[in-house]
Amino acid sequence: MSLTILDYKNQGNEYYSKQESSLAIQSYSQAIQLIETNLQEQDQVPLYLLYSNRSAAYIQDKDFYCGYEDAKQSLKLQRNENFKGFYRSSICAYHLGFLDQSKALIKEAIDEQHQNINDYVDLKMLIEKKEKCMKKWRKSIATAKKSLKNLEQIINNGTLWFEMPSILYQIRYILRSYFENTKDKKLMNIDHGDLGLRLHQLAVRFNNFYHVEKIIMSDPIFEDLILNEMPDVGSLRLKAYEQRKSSYDQRDYDLEENASEDVTAYEFSFFINNILASLVFNTSNEKLSLRALRQLHRLTTNDLYRQSLGDALSDAINNYIYRNYKNNSFDKMVET
Fold first, then answer.
1. Burial letters for 124-147: b for 16+ Cβ neighbours within 10 Å, e otherwise?
2. For the purposes of burial, counting CB atoms within 10 Å of the CB of 84, is it exposed (0-12), middle (13-18) or buried (19 or more)?
3. Angle (nearest 5°) at CA 288 between 287 and 293
4. Mean pLDDT of 101-130
5. What is the CB neighbour count within 10 angstroms for residue 215?
6. How many CB atoms lie within 10 A of CB 199?
7. Is the pTM of this model over 0.90?
8. How far apart are CA 49 and CA 6, in angstroms?
9. What is the pLDDT of residues 194-228, one digit of tens each?
């Protein structure tokens, strides 16, 4: 006898309570499919609730991107009195680095949906902590050269790891400011291509000499920056991407040309992508390796991010695949 929507929902809840998130996701997906393909009526289980529940399972699995998409769909289907939809979408937005969206969702939940402000206290504190980390080096007017020097000193000396996220955020901020403020060279006092090359070199050194997994997982903000946050593609690239389905005579080609000149995500990714690729091949933690692989897969299959990162992503992946292949081949040679 085939299971009903309610059966799959209850099954998913049971898996979720046992921390078996992958199985919970499968069960909720089966229930959603039954409704969306009109195989069964959603009498006892509303569709928005199933999306919200699957969002929770994705969050449990630390797949905040899919959790965000499901939570947004839940809110699209039912916005009023959907407390969990608001909370789950705002927590996912936080982990993805969409802090403005997270704060907007919290504001709407409290001001318009009349949800309890106390339910969001911890999340608001997390947002404030991350924003403080992101802005830590701005008061000292840390230029690109100074930021690279600080990052290099940390990696060379093997100390002050807690400063790495704030320095990396400052470098990303400098790149963003440069491409959005008519290429002001006050902060960007180095060619942006050279900046990307130095980030690549420092990432390789970081991977080669340190226990990257341990360092990243000791700092939740660093963990987000490497494993969860989506690339900062900029407003122009977002607008250009949104018009991709428009007819040729309705598209703004000047916008597309200007958007292509914004390589913030591309240059910054030389550090992030190398760390992700290294985690896929070098970590002993299978779950962490799968998370890194999942993030790389998302970046290569989502057109917006794939186009923004260009060959920086594929080069990082190919580099570590080649190195891993060489190491395995060498080991086999030694064994024989």
1. bebbeebeebbebbeeeebbbbbb
2. middle
3. 95
4. 96
5. 17
6. 23
7. yes
8. 11
9. 999 999 999 999 999 999 999 999 999 999 999 99
Q: Look up residue 43 and give its two tokens.
A: 């009498």
Q: Which two tokens stand for residue 139?
A: 């008061």
CA distance 19 to 2: 25
Query: Does residue 59 contact residue 65 with C-beta atoms inside 8 Å?
Result: no
CA geometry: angle 68, 69, 72, nearest 5 deg:
85
What's the token pair of residue 173? 């901020």
Find the Cα–Cα–Cα–Cα dihedral 288, 294, 296, 301, rounded to 10°. Answer: 180
- The token pair at 222 is 């660093």
Question: How would you write the chain as a 3-class SS string?
Answer: CCCCHHHHHHHHHHHHHCCCHHHHHHHHHHHHHHHHCCCCCCCCCCHHHHHHHHHHHHHHCCCHHHHHHHHHHHHHHCCCCCHHHHHHHHHHHHHHCCHHHHHHHHHHHHHCCCCCHHHHHHHHHHHHHHHHHHHCCCCCCCCHHHHHHHHHHHHHHCCCHHHHHHHHHHHHHHHHHHHHCCCCCCCCCCCHHHHHHHHHHHHHHHHHHCCHHHHHHCCHHHHHHHHHCCCCCCHHHHHHHHCCCCCHHHCCHHHHHHHHCCCHHHHHHHHHHHHHHHHHHHCCCHHHHHHHHHHHHHHHHCHHHHHHHCHHHHHHHHHHHHHHHHHHHHHHHHHC
Rounded Cα–Cα distance for residues 84 and 70 (Å):
11
Residue 244 burial (CB count, 10 A)? 11
Distance, CA of 208 to CA of 217 (rounded, Å): 17
Dist CA 127 CA 125 (whole Å)? 5
Helix axes 83-96, 121-135, angle to 10 degrees: 20
For residue 140, the model assigns a pLDDT of: 73
Token couple for 236: 């122009």
Euclidean distance between CA atoms 247 and 244, whole angstroms: 8
